[in-house]
Amino acid sequence: MARRQAHPDRGRRNGVIAAALASVILGMVVLSFAAVPLYRMFCAATGFGGTPRIGPAASPGAVGRMVTVRFNADTNPALPWRFRPEQVELRLQLGAESVAFYAARNLADRPVTGVAVYNVTPEKVGRYFHKTACFCFDSQTLAAGQDMQFPLSFWVDPALATDPDTADVRTITLSYTFFRSLEDAAGSGAVATAGPHVGPVVR
Fold this sequence. Notes:
The protein is of the alpha+beta class. The protein has helices at residues 8-46, 182-187; strands spanning 53-54, 66-75, 81-85, 89-93, 98-106, 112-121, 129-133, 140-142, 147-156, 171-180. The chain contains 2 helices and 10 strands, in the order H-E-E-E-E-E-E-E-E-E-E-H. The strands form 2 sheets. A 5-stranded mixed sheet has the order 1-7-9-5-3. The longest helix is centred in the N-terminal third of the chain and has 39 residues, at 8-46. It starts with 7 loop residues before the first helix and ends in a 16-residue tail after the last helix. It is found in: Cell inner membrane.
């Protein structure tokens, strides 16, 4: 019995399908790596999920009622630092730019690099909390036993008081959590315990 020969068009179609599938898989891999940084950029720009907005917008000056901002600090167990706010809370007027400080000490006997993430609660005020300068998402390296201060400047939009969803808010909590950077964790063989974060993030 004579063998049937493969049709050349079928081979070309299979090649096209294989190339298309490879492109889709490659695209999905790229998107999986980009998803977290892009999500953080979106949150920082919009205030979504309790993320304070970051940008050059100048404060309008003190024009509204008073609000209390409380400061919280957490450290992932994989990062051998002591991290704390320098002040428990600040009472300020809406629209007024303020400065606050956090402090950290490296408890290890070698340099260690950390990366901070942050949010505000209640989450609904994220769009109205503007940070004009902060240390978040930037790698911070402390030498063995080194102490360092981390300043931040911020203001709360007076629109907070006129939005029916946030008009009742009188206290806002700003929380920072420091994680070991992925690069530092990889160098010390501790990637698995570095924490649920992605390394340096484009702001």
